[in-house]
Structure formats: C-alpha cells, structure tokens
UniProtKB/TrEMBL annotation:
Keywords: 4Fe-4S, Electron transport, Iron, Iron-sulfur, Metal-binding, Repeat, Transport. Gene3D superfamilies: Alpha-helical ferredoxin, NagB/RpiA/CoA transferase-like. InterPro entries: 4Fe4S_Fe-S-bd, 4Fe4S_Fe_S_CS, FTHF_cligase-like_sf, Helical_ferredxn, LUD_dom, LutB/LldF, LutB_C, NagB/RpiA_transferase-like. Residues 12-25 have a biased composition (Basic and acidic residues). It holds the Pfam family LUD_dom. The keyword 4Fe-4S applies. One of its GO terms (biological process) is lactate metabolic process. This is L-lactate dehydrogenase complex protein LldF. It comes from Nitrospirillum amazonense. Residues 320-350 form the 4Fe-4S ferredoxin-type domain. Residues 1-31 are annotated as: Disordered.
Length: 507
C-alpha cells in the first residue's frame, strides 16, 4: 500500500475461465445482443457529442480534468495519509485493505460487530471487484443492490456488462420477463413506468429495513475529508443516509487533493458517461450524524457510523511504473467503452472481467496479471477512438501496445528485478517468436525475399487452411491466396526500376 499500510496483490482471476477469443464467437453470433448494444451505444455517442459541441471548450475542460488527476497521482501517498487524517477528524473510521480478501474481511467484521443482517447497496465497481455480495451471503448477510440496473442484474444472477449501465445488454422485453418471474405478484408488462414502479416498491421497503448501507466513492477529497458520490436515481443517497451504518469502499486512486478539483471532474464525468450536463444527485459525505452538544439538538438524519475501506488490490504495483500509472487516472465514465468498435460488438461479458472495454483491457491485466488476462490487450483495433474521448486523456492505445510487449518480453523493475506487470512474459509463444524471427530474416535479405515469395507464388495456395501456421488466422479469416506473379514482376513489366537500380534513375 502506498501509505505504508501494506503491499499489493494481483486480484483474483477466475479459475479455468474461457478467454476473450474463446467467448467472442458466442457474442458475435447473438443478433439480439448485438442489436441491444448497437442501439444503446449509438444513443450514448450522440448524447455525448451534443454535450461537447465546441472543440476548444472540450479540449480545455479535459486538460483541466487530466491535470487534476495527474497532480493527485503525483502526490498519491501523501494525499492518502491526509485523507485518512481528515476523515478521522470528521468522525469517519478509515480501514486499509491490501487485498480483496482483506477488504471483504473488514466489511464483514464491521457488519457483524453492528449485528447487521441486511444490507442495501449503492453501485460500486470496487465491491464487484471484491465479489462482496457473494462473500456476505456466505456469512448469512443479505445484500440487495439498490441501483435499478444492478438490481436487474442481481435478479438475473449475472454480472454487470458495463461500468455505468450494468444491464445495457438487456432490452425491455427481457427485463419484463425477468421481473414477472422474480417479483411476486407482478404480471408481465411492457410498460417501462410500471416496471420501474415495481422495482421501486421492492427497493423502498429494503431501504427502510436495512441494517447497513454500502456504497462506492466517485472521488475522495483529501483537503476536506469528503466522499463524493454522484447518481441519478436517489438510491445512493438513501443507501448512505437511511441505514444507521454506512460503509464506503473505494480504490486508493480515487483521491483528489482539493475540493476545488471536483467541479471540472463533475463537468466531465456525466457528460462523457451518459450525455447529461450533470447528474441528478451529487452527494458529499464528510462524516456521520452529529450529536447535539450543550443541550442543543443534534442532526436528525444520516448514519450514526461511517466507515471507509481503501483498497489496494494491485494498484500500488500499477503506480510504480511511470507510464502504466496513467491507468489510475480513470474516473469510470465508460466513454471509451461506448465508442469502442470491439466492445460495441461483443459486449462486456465477453471480457469475463470486472472492468470490460478499453479501460478494462489495460487495467485487468495489471490487477490480475498477464497470465490470467494477457490476451485482453490484443482485443483491440488500436483505432484510437478511446483515447480521443477519454475525459482525463489516458493514452489507452499506447498502454495497450506496452502491455502487448510486456506479455511477451517483460520489463523488469531495477530495484526488484521482477516484471513491472504481474506474470510478465506469460503470453510468450516460441512458435510466434520463431515466425517473427523468420519474417525478419526474409525481409532483411533481398535475395532470400525473392526466393521465398516465388516459392509462395508457386506452392503457397496448396497449404491447407488448417496447417499449424495458418490455423489461428483462418479460424476467423479467409485463407490468403498467393498470386502467381509478384509486385516486382508487374512493376518490371511497366518499366519501373528495381530498388537496386534506383541509383541509375535520372534525378
């Protein structure tokens, strides 16, 4: 942990889980899924574009956002210490978790000491990273998601497919069928308002009965000890104020230095995420309910105890590398997903990771290790769309290329002689290395190049599509056909000189 509270771990990859390339065909062959995503992504891209009609304003605002996050990362160890001190002064109990297991144990211990048996949860990607709901359930504590999208996913027994809109892969009819099956007394209806009202009736009762509330954190302000949560449904506010106990969980990278740093980030995040100028609710939590002093009445609402769990889970390792640390700038807006031509065709579940899409392709391998997720940096066209829309200017394509290199030829940290990224070199294939070595040999020797190309022109088309060196290509593409005559032959016929003859061409 960056503040001398512990080290870092690499996360918890699912055991024997299918990789991206193995899961992608199922998504590509699901026309309904592709229609759902295409419709949703087109709408989100249009709404975001409408929020930034002035390129100069967009450029200036994202420069401010990137500067805020870069400054926070530069001072991260110090800011975490300051955040802890300020929150403690405000009456918030701060806990440090090196691993997700440790974070789960901390949350469980707090709940058990409070005698809590039911929990109402706001949306939190860190709690997904911890698999917190399942952990609490194993210990007899029921956790209910209060965000509508997360509630739908929980009813379906699925994981989120998007970090802002968890059930974006489902359409209205699928949700209607699910509600009719899972909510007692509800008949199937295609009316969106009726479906929303049904969920509201269930969740309102849960808010009133919950022994504790759990939430994520969008930003944690070191200067004032303030936890900032933004949302649209009011569920986050209810989760953090109605129950007597509030537990917030967040990654260590969410800290910012000043309260004045929040406005530019709030101007960027909702516009980039959902195309809104601002979210419906901006919650700023600086402590538990205050008691009355010297005969004065205390505050009448809010939790009597607030806890913050700061999770490392591999983030310190990411932070150690100057280039890869840019990953930690992410403000979880999902704009990169909404514009990614790969994500919009296969959806979030294909990645089989907590964080899908472009940001997931650079974050997951660093948290879980390249042995578990080394294929993810390759699930990209490097089209640069993600970098162009990122509100804090994360150079995602550059980091994808860096991780591809780490996967086959790891960089070592001078101090430890360990790979910068966990399991560096895990994706190295000797067959691929030999192919590239052969390619280099051929392309750097003109005579050998002519011999090989003529041999391919003569017999290349006889190589079967399932041959070892062709199989990976032809599983998703047509087998290349070699022409009987080379480009050099055609150029020579038209009178163009060979490269070796260029010195004789008149200037």
């Amino acid at each position: 942990m960056l503040s001398e509270k512990g080290g870092a771990d690499g996360g918890h990859p699912p055991e024997h889980a299918p990789r991206f390339a193995e899961r992608a065909p199922d998504a590509l062959n699901n026309p309904q899924l592709r229609r759902n995503f295409r419709r949703a992504m087109d709408g989100l891209m249009a709404k975001r574009a409408a929020q930034f009609p002035d390129p100069a304003y967009w450029a200036e605002l994202r420069e401010r956002g990137a500067a805020v996050k870069a400054r926070a990362l530069a001072k991260l160890p110090d800011l975490l210490e300051r955040l802890e001190a300020r929150l403690t002064t405000n009456g918030v109990q701060v806990h440090w978790a090196e691993t997700t297991e440790e974070a789960n144990a901390i949350v469980l211990g707090i709940l058990q000491r409070a005698g809590a048996r039911t929990v109402i949860k706001g949306k939190s990607m860190v709690s997904e990273e911890m698999h917190l709901n399942a952990h609490l359930e194993r210990h007899g504590i029921e956790a209910v998601e209060s965000d509508l999208g997360e509630y739908i996913i929980q009813l379906a027994g699925e994981t989120p497919s998007h970090i802002v809109m968890p059930c974006i892969h489902k359409n209205k009819d699928e949700i209607s069928d699910l509600f009719a099956e899972k909510i007692p007394g509800l008949e199937r209806t295609g009316d969106v308002d009726e479906l929303t009202a049904a969920a509201r009736r269930v969740l309102r009762e849960r808010f009133a009965q919950a022994d504790a509330g759990i939430s994520g954190v969008n930003f944690a302000v070191a200067e004032t000890g303030t936890l900032v949560l933004i949302e649209n449904e009011g569920n986050g506010r209810l989760s953090t104020t109605m129950p007597p106990l509030h537990i917030a969980v967040t990654g260590i990278e969410k800290v910012v230095e000043l309260l004045d740093d929040i406005p530019p980030l709030l101007a960027l995040l909702p516009r980039s995420a959902t195309g809104q100028p601002i979210t419906t609710y901006v919650n700023m939590i600086s402590g538990p309910r205050k008691k009355g002093e010297m005969g004065k009445a205390g505050e009448k609402d809010g939790p009597t105890a607030v806890h913050l769990v700061l999770l490392d889970a591999g983030r310190s390792r990411v932070y150690q590398d100057v280039e890869l640390a840019d990953t930690l700038r992410c403000i979880r807006c999902a704009a990169c997903m909404n514009h990614c031509p790969v994500y919009t065709r296969v959806g979030g579940h294909t990645y089989n990771a907590i964080y899908p899409g472009p940001i997931g392709k650079i974050l997951t391998p660093q948290l879980q290790g390249l042995d578990a997720a080394g294929d993810q940096p390759h699930a990209s066209t490097l089209c640069n769309a993600c970098a162009e829309v990122c509100p804090v200017k994360i150079p995602i394509p550059d980091l994808l290329v860096r991780l591809r290199r780490e996967a086959v030829r790891p960089t070592e940290t001078p101090a430890t002689h360990l790979p910068v990224v966990k399991d560096g070199g895990a994706e190295r294939s000797w067959n691929e290395a030999l192919v590239w070595a052969g390619w280099r040999l051929v392309y750097t020797r003109p005579l050998l190049y002519r011999m090989v190309t003529r041999a391919l022109a003569w017999g290349g088309n006889w190589v079967p599509a399932g041959a070892p060196l062709m199989r990976d290509w032809t599983t998703a593409r047509t087998k290349p056909r070699f022409k009987p005559r080379t480009l050099h032959d055609l150029a020579r016929e038209r009178g163009y000189p060979n490269r070796l003859e260029l010195d004789e061409v008149p200037k």
